[in-house]
Amino acid sequence: DISGWTFRDIGTDTAVVAANIVPSGDITGYTMTVRTSSLTVVNATSPASKNWMRGTTDVEVAGYTFTAGDAVDMLVQDVTLTSCYAADGITTVYCEDDTSNVAKDVALSVSLYDGATKLAGPKSINSSTGAVEFTDIGWTVAKGTTKTMMVKATLNSALPAGVTGYVGISLGIL
């Protein structure tokens, strides 16, 4: 309702009577639904825990399932992984920037894949932070769909100093 309002014509600087304003009543438009974008990331069921030989390339060390909501396509630009390490029955797991985290000595490089398509990499684990940062990936998860991103590593052919048996590493999204 615009009764009681005062209007001016900016061209002539004169008052305009409310009855001359078109439309003079309430306007009804189409019903609109507003949706919020969303992206959910969870651990994928694959890869399962496996044993690998030293020096192996393209070892699937982690998988993540990305599910986009039904509002819009989601663009994944940056992914940062953090590393953890354990070896030879050691009950302590060393993560991120702990000086005992030698995951960088186990995995020489890390890459991201969508199926057989390489999205980013290879990159090295940062020796100071224990992280692997991927930028400007440009990976799209279409609205209402689910895609899996695999983390693959190239393993060193030599074990870290003082390790004689098995080595376990994990790379997780921050």
Instruction: Characterize the largest beta sheet: strand count, sense, and whether it forms a barrel.
Output: 5 strands, antiparallel
CA distance, first residue to last residue: 53 Å
User: How many β-strand runs?
Assistant: 13
In one word, what is the shape?
Answer: elongated
Helix fraction, binned, reads under 10%
Overall pLDDT metric: 84
Helix count, DSSP H or I runs of 4 or more residues: 1
- Low-pLDDT stretches are none
Helix-strand makeup class: mainly beta
Provide the β-strand percentage band.
Answer: 35-45%
Q: For the CA atoms, what is the radius of gyration?
A: 28 Å
Q: What's the arrangement of strands in the largest beta sheet?
A: 3-4-12-8-9
Structure description:
- Helix content is 2%, strand content 43%.
- The protein is built from one helix and 13 strands; from the N terminus they run E-E-E-E-E-E-E-H-E-E-E-E-E-E.
- It has one helix at 103-106, and strands spanning 7-9, 14-16, 39-43, 59-68, 74-76, 79-87, 94-95, 107-114, 117-123, 131-134, 139-141, 146-155, 167-173.
- Strands 3-4-12-8-9 form a five-stranded antiparallel sheet. Strands 6, 7, 10 and 13 form a four-stranded antiparallel sheet that branches. A two-stranded antiparallel sheet has the order 1-2.
- The radius of gyration is 28 Å and the shape is elongated.
- It starts with 6 loop residues before the first strand and ends with a strand.
